Structure to design on (688 residues):
């Protein structure tokens, strides 16, 4: 994907935010701009807005401060590269106050935020973002409730987009230290980039980088822009309080639109509260988890300071044992690193949690879809069932590509939920609000594009648009197909007759239902999950080795729902993660037995879960199991129904859903008003 493609995406996003129906801009008065470099202690929304207008006017050659919602200003924003990730992209939302009793349905239960550093979610919980004018039932969360600003000491924040003036109103900036991980345009400043066909070339603005602008705010602000890859798309947050660390994995950017303040868009937020360890505890007694190991690996690749990574050891991570941190590291990854990230990392996480499966059904929702092929979707499906792993020999050099064993047609095994044009047009913001939902008509009309996987996205909350990126996976348990290390086939051949060295086959474990959820930032594209290949570059030190190449930085969390040994895994984690996987005491009708909750199933859902009658029945016996042993365990196991997910999250889309048929998908360049006016340019790819 080219740099111009990235500009197209950011243009559409900014236009959507600025011009969506129902969105208003505030007028600004003619007042002198304050010093932008006074530090966070002096920051307030009005000051940053005045400074924003001064910078915009200086860049446009206009010395007078004018209202930024004038028609001329709006037109200028629609035809020039938008400052989508800088402090200048502010104050587009006027209704920053929450819904009142007269303007929105009342909440069904009180939700505290901002004043407590208690372990509110010691077991981990998946939320939907709050949305203006939508009723609340305790499974939605506002950004203020995530931050708990009154006790927040340090915040590590990651986002593809920032609205800094809005964001800083959510913090006590005088007592909080900040680390920002940002997306920075890689185009050298001041260079000329080509405009649309027949249009005059544009000169890029000479301005400080976002990193420089952020760090100019004061000594308590640090910023980092990863150098690898095209797009810093991760939304990870680490929030340090006096008694806990809150780990947050959202799909939302740090802009008001994504956090529901317009009542148009919804996202997901997974978070967990981890207690601070006793300061007198011996450092040698610290116990890491697979979750923490992968988190440190990811942050290390982003070149965050060692102090940030070692600081994580001050907290107790045992409650993360049931989960997996799944990431995409931008750039090329080889050998053991390859097995940890992107598609191969997803597969490794599934295997590590014992959730490998067959007969696997995958339902995915995404806000951006790339130029897919059936082969790419097959690879994603294989990874989701833990069957896309890397074989690493003793030499450490992997020379064979991952290859899933189940290569059946995907027409009924993989479904992708995406909105139609009619759905976006009928949303509260209309077609002007669809700029962050990205798909190209060019892709859809390609002969090799797997259009048969598409299903209509319809939100479980009245007509909200979705920025969620999720996988809902169901299957029948299966042992991992191959170990991550192997001996040569020649060695196997010469030793095949040595009976004494052959280990007897152990009886296969009884088959069980498997289900899990992925929630994070990764869309349905090669940019997000990576592409595996053999390095053929003559000058490469890894010539002949397998590699994965990823354009984006992404992260998410894998949440087990059903699977072998799941109860035991949860029971070993402190705070009973498996006993309250979903709801923190939300009523008698949601209380379940410990066994049901250990599997992630409430009593309400458990009554609905019935085996799906399917032609592909899987019996628990295996070809390698002796007949007597198999006879004692024979039991037909069928896929769990969709209702198994409802205790974790209801939606965000209705299931089942219809095929598109003759309905047209939402195409941002054909349907968004900004592109209809000629503000866009042709691209070869547009996904985040």
């Amino acid at each position: 994907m080219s740099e111009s493609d990235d500009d197209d995406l950011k243009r559409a996003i900014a236009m959507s935010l600025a011009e969506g129906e129902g969105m208003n801009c505030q007028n600004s008065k003619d007042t002198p701009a304050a010093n932008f470099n006074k530090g966070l202690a002096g920051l307030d929304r009005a000051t940053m807005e005045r400074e924003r207008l001064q910078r915009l006017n200086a860049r446009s050659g206009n010395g007078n401060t004018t209202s930024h919602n004038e028609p001329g200003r709006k037109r200028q924003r629609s035809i020039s590269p938008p400052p989508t990730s800088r402090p200048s992209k502010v104050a587009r939302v006027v209704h920053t106050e929450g819904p009142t009793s007269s303007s929105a349905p009342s909440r069904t239960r009180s939700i505290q935020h901002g004043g407590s550093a208690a372990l509110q979610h010691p077991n981990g919980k998946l939320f939907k973002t709050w949305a203006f004018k939508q009723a609340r039932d305790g499974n939605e969360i506002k950004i203020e409730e995530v931050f708990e600003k009154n006790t927040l000491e340090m915040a590590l924040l990651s986002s593809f987009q920032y609205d800094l003036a809005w964001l800083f109103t959510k913090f006590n900036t005088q007592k909080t230290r900040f680390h920002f991980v940002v997306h920075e345009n890689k185009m050298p400043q001041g260079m000329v980039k080509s405009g649309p066909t027949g249009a005059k070339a544009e000169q890029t603005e000479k301005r400080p980088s976002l990193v420089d602008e952020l760090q100019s705010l004061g000594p308590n602000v640090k910023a980092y822009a990863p150098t690898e890859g095209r797009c810093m798309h991760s939304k990870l947050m680490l929030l340090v309080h006096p008694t806990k660390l809150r780990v947050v994995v959202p799909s939302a950017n740090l802009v008001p639109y994504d956090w529901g303040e317009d009542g148009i868009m919804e996202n997901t937020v997974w978070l967990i509260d981890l207690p601070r360890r006793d300061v007198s505890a011996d450092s040698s007694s610290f116990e890491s988890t697979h979750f923490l190991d992968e988190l440190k690996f990811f942050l290390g690749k982003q070149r965050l300071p060692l102090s940030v990574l070692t600081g994580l050891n001050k907290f107790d991570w045992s409650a993360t044992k049931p989960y997996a941190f799944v990431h995409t590291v931008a750039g090329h990854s080889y050998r053991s690193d390859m097995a940890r990230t992107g598609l191969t990392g997803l597969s490794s996480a599934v295997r590590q949690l014992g959730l490998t499966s067959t007969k696997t059904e995958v339902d995915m929702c995404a806000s951006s879809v790339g130029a897919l092929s059936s082969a790419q979707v097959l690879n994603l499906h294989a990874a989701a069932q833990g069957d896309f792993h890397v074989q690493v020999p003793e030499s450490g050099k992997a020379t064979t590509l991952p290859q899933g064993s189940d290569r059946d047609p995907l027409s009924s095994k993989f479904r992708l939920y995406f909105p139609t044009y009619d759905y976006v047009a009928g949303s509260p913001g209309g077609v002007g609000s669809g700029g962050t939902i990205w798909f190209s008509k060019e892709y859809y009309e390609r002969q090799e594009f797997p259009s048969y996987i598409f299903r209509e996205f319809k939100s479980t909350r009245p007509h909200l648009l979705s920025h969620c990126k999720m996988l809902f996976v169901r299957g029948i348990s299966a042992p991992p197909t191959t170990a991550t290390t192997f001996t040569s086939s020649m060695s196997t051949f010469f030793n095949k007759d040595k009976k004494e060295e052959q280990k007897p086959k152990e009886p296969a474990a009884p088959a069980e239902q498997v289900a899990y959820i992925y929630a994070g930032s990764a869309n349905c594209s090669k940019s997000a999950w990576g592409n595996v290949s053999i390095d053929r570059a003559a000058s490469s030190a890894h010539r002949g080795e397998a590699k994965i190449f990823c354009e984006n930085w992404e992260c998410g969390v894998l949440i087990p729902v059903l699977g072998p040994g799941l109860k035991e895994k949860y029971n070993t984690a402190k705070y009973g993660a498996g006993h309250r996987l979903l709801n923190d005491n939300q009523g008698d009708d949601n209380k379940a037995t410990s066994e049901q909750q250990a599997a992630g199933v409430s009593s309400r859902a458990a009554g609905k879960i019935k085996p799906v009658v399917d032609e592909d029945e899987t019996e628990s016996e295996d070809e390698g199991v002796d007949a007597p042993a198999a006879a004692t365990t024979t039991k037909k196991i069928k896929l769990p129904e969709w209702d198994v997910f409802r205790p974790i999250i209801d939606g965000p889309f209705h299931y089942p859903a219809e095929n598109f048929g003759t309905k047209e998908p939402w195409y941002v360049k054909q349907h968004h008003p900004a592109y209809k006016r000629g503000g866009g340019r042709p691209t070869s790819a547009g996904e985040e």
The first strand starts at residue 125 and ends at 129. The CA atoms of residues 71 and 77 lie 10 Å apart. The chain has a mean pLDDT of 75. The two ends are 10 Å apart (CA to CA).
